Amino acid sequence: MRWNSSPGLLALILFSVLAGCACASKCKQALVKCKYECQRNYQLCQVRNIDPWYCQNQVGNCDLKCDNDNSTCSSWWW
Question: Is 16 contained in some domain?
């Protein structure tokens, strides 16, 4: 018997790949949302005429937080 002759094995592999893609998609979506919120907060900071260096520092910290919070996302799936 060949290893790939089982329809159940093929279905299991296909399901695993699709489940992995769905998780990666949700992970990427969370990262994009986080980065968007960082940029929105940066623009609000600028509108409020707060020190530009403060705004840049805040957006940099926010971007790092997004990256750290979503560090388990695999870019291989994107």
Answer: no
